[in-house]
Amino acid sequence: MPDRGRPVVTAEPTGEMHVSVADVLAAQARLRRFLPPTPLHYAERFGTWLKLENLQRTGSYKVRGALNAMLAALERGDERPVICASAGNHAQGVAWASFRLGVQAITVMPHGAPDTKIAGVQHWGATVRQHGTSYDEAYAFACELAEHHGYRFLSAFDDPDVIAGQGTLGIELAPHAPDVVIVPIGGGGLASGVALALKSQGVRIIGAQVEGVDSMARAIKGDVREIAPVSTLADGVKVKIPGFLTRRLCASLLDDVVIVREAELRETLVRLALEEHVIAEGAGALALAAGRRVAGKRKCAVVSGGNIDATVLSTLLSEVRPRPPRKPRRRNGERLRSRATSPPPRTLKSDSPPISVTAVEETLW
């Protein structure tokens, strides 16, 4: 098994590809002048901190890996046009990065990709080609175009520079000392990068997948056969076969993978919008949905993206009726502090002056 602090993975069958903690730190140095850290939000009704990547430049964490990979290529002198296959968020990350860096970009997206994601790619000037009805069909077509025209193909997850870029999210979480971080998994790039950044610090890393769209969970157990993903609200994680590099990293670094039912995902997305005022896409709500089954004193779930079509969101808000959350329970420390600071009761006369009350905000981390 590779060293936990600096894991190295060999790819098949094209030679060696290495990705380590040092690569994540190098990515952080590249990205800090382009991408400010995204905020943390404490969702008290869920008892979980949220890393709000839905507030990222393109509405998704994917811009981290895309930008790092393109910056690293330019450092190596590779100025070829970039082509990628994506259900939407990686394409938007590539489009934004290409606009900032002056690199030509072509994105291949499957038919049926959310309109808001297609519009986001076009907004930044990248060329959009739609092909097939799934990510895997778009991937095969993008590889053909790359070989025919000499483009540089940029994987959405199975690339060392992309993984390292996604890992910068973990570096941003490290100062807050979570004991467990939950991440959604499609191809595994985000989970691999975050695990590289945090595992050596003793943080548990839990992956989240949707029932019937669980290729990574199966691959970790040794079943690497292609699956036929079922229809799901989490279109961003519909992958038939996870990456080879990410599969090795996830198998060695993840503590567990939680499988979420579609109904749980839909309810969590609606609760996020109504109770926490956070707009997430299906994959963006996946980690929080899995968090119900994860124990931890300082849990953090990654809200990976917020690019959801308005029509889909309005339908969910009208159809899904979430169960009311459990009533809050006062912590023992709060109860004792309240008793210690409370003045003895007294009877107020009608001419007594008004009492002023000062609210004190408590830091949860």
From TrEMBL:
GO terms for molecular function: threonine deaminase activity. It is an enzyme of class 4 (lyase). CDD domains: Thr-dehyd. Pfam families: PALP (PF00291). Residues 321-365 are annotated as: Disordered. InterPro entries: Ser/Thr_Dehydratase, TrpB-like_PALP, TrpB-like_PALP_sf. The keyword Lyase applies. Its EC number is 4.3.1.19. SUPFAM superfamilies: Tryptophan synthase beta subunit-like PLP-dependent enzymes (SSF53686). Keywords: Lyase, Pyridoxal phosphate. Its cofactor is pyridoxal 5'-phosphate. Residues 36-303 form the Tryptophan synthase beta chain-like PALP domain. This is Threonine dehydratase. The lineage of its organism: Bacteria, Pseudomonadati, Pseudomonadota, Gammaproteobacteria, Lysobacterales.
